[in-house]
TrEMBL record, chains A, B:
Tetracyclin repressor-like C-terminal domain: residues covered: 63-165
Protein name listed in UniProt: Tetracyclin repressor-like C-terminal domain-containing protein
Pfam family of the protein (one): TetR_C_27
Domain of life: Bacteria
Origin species: Qipengyuania soli
Length: 191, 191
């Protein structure tokens, strides 16, 4: 990853061997296939994000506070990653698009944790009448700016901890299965 | 634009002249500078989105319904654009990133309209205690998946009219200046 960050481009096993001045055989003993190298890079990228999620999940905070921490700590990590080295950050964003399959397991785990938080919140009366998977999708969509690396790079300066807290409070107090008027069944002219 | 969509790449004035079999002078009489071509392409891209926004703003729908329509109609247009020709859609997304300055005026206009809707909603008691610009930012961030072309391409199949309506209702009923517990001032351990 240091090599990729220095060169500003993806590094294959062949390039890695050349740069380190070791044989391909030596590199292949660590990464038998190209995909093993990509998996290792993906794992390194996600490790600190997983660590903060685990840390938050282990607390006994109330659901609303817990969900805020669940997102804000990852956001702060990503923002720090971006500010430290924007070019490398964008390289990882591009690689993440190209090799999305490797990230899937980590995203599934984050969704699994979020489902636990949703269940805790529903036990307290929030998100009334909505299926867990619907709430999962709605929350992920509405705070996507705070966890999607591409958006953190694009609109990062407009993202703040305070705004994220407003959004979490809005979701906890405003999200339910009841249609309160946004989606009318009538046409555009009907007031 | 037909040429760009057929070739799958950005077209300069030189390429345009060559492809049409006309002189550069002829093309330059329509587009004196390269930026005039880019401005025209940007205008064509935004024209149908502006039209639906104007249509919605002209109605006398209640604020909540109006805001939903304000977003859902653009979302439906973008989704249709993407489904019709994903490759061209991604080309315009890339050009939009590269030539963001040309889009700024259209984005400012959309924000201006949204501010009008926010003022109408605040007059009915929504978004209590929040500055207009704060509400503008929070709404744009929370429904970004439905208006940002890149996200429509990436997560389009998870975006639905129903979900957008849930989010608008959540914002109207849940967004206010009062901290209701998401952002604790205490540490991670404090329950």
């Amino acid at each position: 990853m240091a090599l990729m960050e220095r060169r500003g481009e993806e590094v294959t096993r062949a390039k890695l061997a050349a740069e380190l001045g070791v044989t391909r055989t030596r590199v292949e003993s660590v990464f038998p296939e190209e995909r093993d190298l990509l998996e290792a890079v993906t794992g390194e990228w996600f490790a600190p994000k997983l660590a903060v999620m685990d840390e938050v999940m282990a607390t006994d905070l109330p659901p609303r506070r817990k969900m805020y921490e669940f997102f804000v700590r990852r956001f702060q990590l990503l923002r720090e990653n971006y500010r430290t080295d924007p070019a490398s950050f964008m390289l990882y964003v591009e690689m993440g698009e190209r090799y999305f399959e490797y990230a899937q397991g980590y995203i599934d785990l984050a969704d699994h944790y979020l489902c636990e938080l949703i269940v805790e919140a529903q036990a307290e009366g929030h998100f009334e009448g909505l299926e867990i998977n619907m709430v999962l999708s709605l929350i992920n969509q509405s705070i996507v700016s705070y966890i999607q690396p591409y958006l953190i790079a694009m609109i990062g300066e407009r993202l703040t901890e305070d705004k994220l807290a407003y959004l979490i409070d809005a979701l906890f107090d405003g999200l339910s299965a009841t249609d309160r008027g946004a989606k009318g069944t009538k046409g555009l002219r009907a007031a």
